[in-house]
Amino acid sequence: MDLPRLWVGIDLISTRLHSEIVVHSAGGQRVARRLRRVAGKLGYDHSGEALFRGVVADVMNGPRLDHARTEAGIECRTHWITAADGTAVALLVWLAPPPVTPRPVYNSWIMDLRRLATAPDGDDLELYGVKRTVGEYKPITAVFRTLNPDDAPAWTALIHNAGHEREGVTLDAAWSIRPDNNWVHFWSSTTNLGAPRPGRAVYGLTVQLPHRELDTRLGTLVRYTDASLIMVDVRTRCVVAGCGDLADALLTDEPRLARVLTQIDLDRLVAAPAYGVVEQTISIEGSLFQAALFAMPAGSLRPGSMFAILLSPASDRAR
After folding, report:
1. Rounded Cα distance, 184 and 208, in Å
2. Model confidence, pTM
3. Theoretical Cys-Cys bridge with 11: which of 24, 40, 73, 243, CB 3.0 to 4.6 Å?
């Protein structure tokens, strides 16, 4: 019997919706497929898959408790991940010969789509470099203070589609943050529940990735131009993330940020040709700044897209 020596994360919300085991991740890596489609790739033979299915069914139908037992030379470990309101989001399973490898880190979250805020639970809430407590809602801008800017569009699309796609559709995004000058990598997913609407329930699951290839072009642009970048959702006109000294200051001062955004002519960018850049001068606390606006990703703006606003002192541009 072939059993892969890895932790398998089961997406419980998708599993219950589809009446089929849906693998969220395995060995700390994205899978996002139904078990019957990936069992062989993960390393299960027919009898190993049957045993795994039996264990998952038994655990899901029993009390929500973590288990550890050994039988016939096979180690079985299970670990539940619940949301802050007690909803079961994931079941992690090790079913293989020893030794048992360290379990990947999983966190859950509930998202309020209207406020763009999340409430966490899970294995390690310290990973984000922001003080978090179970069930405490914080704006995603607080969590994304050190987000890799190039990852912001994927999150914006996820947030948009979480309110608009049909029930059962799974949405996901890979992302990285740098809270202490060291990159920490994640993959997050959510499966839509209920009818499409801005206030639908959104339960998410995040696994910490051991590594990830990063696209850091926007961050490099900010760093080497000494500018600041603000990422704005096209549909809601809400700020999702930002980087640079000025952006850091604005993200922690909502009134000041609002005064900046009221000066930005976003409608001009909507009307601009695809791949266009719109420039204008704005005032921040009496100082003039040049704002360059462009779409992210590059191309026509649509729901789920972002405005990128690059801010630099107007005097710098005049030199």
Report:
1. 8
2. 0.87
3. 24
